[in-house]
Amino acid sequence: ACIKGHRSSTCKHFDRPLVEVKKKGRPATQCNHCRELRKVKQVHVKCACQSRTSEGASSIVIPELWR
């Protein structure tokens, strides 16, 4: 028998619904592109990309003072 809320991807129990166990911590609010800017350039700005997916957006315009 498995434990409720476990992280095993191989469990196939049928007596109760499988429940997603999410990652710890707060969810990311910035895309990868803006997160990398924050780490590399030490600039913390709100994510202004069109899509806030974890893939990041490549169509962002970076102001000259950040380069």
Describe this structure in words.
- It is a single chain.
- With 67 residues, the chain is mostly loops.
- The chain has a domain at 32-66.
- Helices cover 15% and strands 0% of the residues.
- It has one helix spanning 32-41.
- The protein is rod-shaped, with a radius of gyration of 19 Å.
Q: Topology, pairings included?
A:
Elements: H1 32-41
**Main sheet record:** none
Distance between the termini: 56 Å
Instruction: Find the structural class using helix and strand composition.
Output: little secondary structure
Cα-atom radius of gyration: 19 Å
Oligomer: single chain
- Give me the count of strands: 0
Pfam families: Copper-fist (PF00649)
Protein name: Copper-fist domain-containing protein
GO cellular component, one term: nucleus
InterPro entries: Copper_Homeo_Regul, Cu_fist_DNA-bd_dom, Cu_fist_DNA-bd_dom_sf
Task: Give a nutshell description of this structure.
It contains one helix and no strands.
